[in-house]
Amino acid sequence: MAITDVAQYAHLNKTDIEMLGAELDAIRADIEESLGARDAAYIRRTIAFQRILEVGARLLIGGSRSKAGWITGTAALAFAKSVENMEIGHNVGHGQWDWMNDPEIHSNTWEWDMAGLSSQWRYSHNYEHHVFTNVIDMDHDLGFGVMRMTSDQPWEPRHRMQPLRNLLLAVGFEWGIALHGVHAAQNRVQSAEEKKAQSRAVLRKIGRQMGKDYGVFPALSRSRWRRTLGANFTANVLRNLWAYVVIFCGHFPDGAEKFAAEVVEEENKAEWYLRQMLGTANFDAGPLMAFASGHLCYQVEHHLFPDLPSNRLPQVALRVRALCEKFDLPYTTGSLQSQYLQTLRTIHRLALPDGDDSHRQRRVSASHKR
Length: 370
Hints:
Fatty_acid_desaturase; oxidoreductase activity, acting on paired donors, with oxidation of a pair of donors resulting in the reduction of molecular oxygen to two molecules of water; FA_desaturase_dom; mainly alpha; Fatty acid desaturase
């Protein structure tokens, strides 16, 4: 059930929450004061690596005559696209590197390599999602408008199809993000002409993106255009699947709590911090997986400090985890497999009417007792 009193749920009083907020502010201040040349070198090195990897992957796809070469090139291209979307595009779009004052690596200028328009995504994601994380009817990333992710949302017959919708969303995640972004942008404006302008903007972006992946690059391959077309399509699907898994594992496994709308009515910054800690989840990852996921294996830390550079989140996580122990707060994490299976279970369970699900749960419980 959705939490209606965050402080009571966390067993913290007003003084405790203020102390928690002060310690988190101190973490932010320490990181901000230490940002410098090493951090700037990190993001520039990451961008260079991603671009070199993409070029190498495309050359291998177009030049190799073996199936193994095509598979290797396609896998490399999928990895390059994942890095561009998650470690670069997502994090640059959050303003994590705006402090550098580099006009290329800036939240207002970076356009990522996917169907959605980054300017529309920044509003739906940075504002609607990060400000109102997991608040029912306010955070529209809660199920992305196509799935029921909490029993507090009324069941409708259409929800029976959500296991299929989940599969389609996973395969076409960039399209889900694009639609999500344009709908949020249209909801911000009043006139029909402004709404049409938002639609035209995303259609232009889609046209450029599709033209690049399914027109220009296949054409450059000349007689081998089918190989390139297939590789681009496969790489996009693999990137979509990976982004979907990472995002869903950060928001919907067991322990990522949901909240009633009244909790934000008079919420202060320290209370907002607390809600972010309760409403998000991490997954265990080594350096390579952390890099590939845009460091969103540290989703708790990312939600506390969405505009701090991603390469600092492992350092931040040590201090946040210690705070959770100090204030007896849950620090939700687990293996990627475990977090995703929990999420998948929730998606399938909430596809059923609550009565049917309760009956099924009772039958399962009874069978376990027998």
